[in-house]
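Quick question, first post here. What does this chain look like in 3D?
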Amino acid sequence: MTSDPYAYLAPLLVSENAFTPAELDVIVAHGEGLGLERSSIAYGDGHVGDNPMRICRQAWMPRDAASAWIYDRLERVARHLNAQVYHFELSGFSDLFQYSVYHGSEGGHFGWHIDQVRGAAHRKLSFSLQLSGPDEYQGGELVIHGGGQPATAPKTRGALVAFPSYTLHRVTPVTAGTRRALVFWTAGPPFR
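> Answer (accepted):
Ran it through. Tokens below.
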């Protein structure tokens, strides 16, 4: 991946070609069949509810016979990226994968936030697999603010973006079309 000893300081990493276009189509079809619901936000007090900070449709993707190959592939890629750059102590995924859909007709977006929340396994790395092509929507940029200037993730279909879960990030409003992504997190013991 990289021989740069300071690569972990980059606001994001990108891995491409983990899936073929046909495999991405299968992931989208599977995600669309899960029954999308309006997204909510978990608050520090354990309350979960609607919040205008996040307008999105989502479904949790259980690991089963239909999705095990997706989990297996992304686990290999996540472990590889971690071993090459971050060197975090990881124990596996913190949650089920989240299939997320942002519709331009709803102004889909997710304001600035971090992915570490109380009550969840200690998330260490966040990942977003770009399922839509850049010609399928406008807006909807994944922006990561890891220090210095914010960095915008590529919209290339199949790009897997990785960044530390404590990093501030957002999805800007989708102004037209539909943005689809598969989001997941790896976890491990608390940082020390």
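Residues 68-86 form the longest helix (19 residues).
The helical segments are 21-32, 68-86.
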